[in-house]
Description:
Keywords: Flavoprotein, FMN, Nucleotide-binding, Oxidoreductase, tRNA processing
Distance between the termini: 33 Å
CATH class of the largest domain: Alpha Beta
Cofactor: FMN
Enzyme class: oxidoreductase
Active site: 116 (proton donor)
CATH architecture of the largest domain: Alpha-Beta Barrel
Order of helices and strands: EHEHEEHHEEHEHHEHEHEHEHHHHH
Number of helices: 15
Function: Catalyzes the synthesis of dihydrouridine, a modified base found in the D-loop of most tRNAs.
Amino acid sequence: MKSDCMQTTTCQERKKDPIEMLHSGQLVKVCAPMVRYSKLAFRTLVRKYSCDLCYTPMIVAADFIRSIKARDSEFTTNQGDCPLIVQFAANDARILSDAARIVCPYANGIDINCGCPQRWALAEGYGACLINNPELVRDMVKQVRNQVENPRFSVSIKIRIHDDLTRTVDLCRKAEATGVSWITVHGRTVEERHQPVHYEAIKIIKESMSIPVIANGDIRSLKEAENVWHITGTDGVMVARGLLANPAIFAGYEETPLKCIWDWVDIALELGTPYMCFHQHLMYMMEKITSRQEKRIFNALSSTSAVLDYLTDHYGIDWTS
């Protein structure tokens, strides 16, 4: 785990408690946890474009507490990286609470992943299988609450829904009774991938809760975010793939502006982002603004210098100025 030494101004956002934000009555715009992608550099970028709250990628808690190397690799932050939620995959209350204590000084809270549908996660007892084990979720929340002394440190969960929505409502009520700060609901079942999101289900869950609820699933523009917020009555919206394609989505841009690409290059180079991650983000950002032929050329580039030359030649951006 590293606290990056990049010089930043004092982060005024540290004063913005996510729990207070979610009780404000205003739309809270959230960057989802995305494996490989929602790391420090990308979080820094989306914060420049009206993102209110960011999550780290999902981190396996057992690996995190066992290995210094894993901590340094998986969790990097700096003074401006706030408010911040660290998401963990866990199936053991003690391990999760140990991980939470490690990150407590550097983040506003932790989130328990109860929604990942990937086979490896389910096989390990992580992710979406936890929606069928509310007792374990309760134990993990309680253990974190008991072990972390800061009363403002949030403990949230991110879930998918059941085919029988009454089971989801029951899970959420039990989580609320245990002391969960808020719940993020991805409006699909574990088996669903690209089917339409069940926003009505999210609305029913929200109406059953007293704590904040964040809606998640298939939001690709600020207008869609606002529509989902109104339809579901939730307290915030969380975006994943839509932000990858357009990190300026929450600022109202319909496609990635060139200024955002410029900002990404500056941030990524300053923070030492590995080339593959640097390039992959640009491929996502430029998807809508490049032709098929341009994509073939750009996607085949293999060095930072080649990428910078390409951007200079095609968009007239001078990275040396």
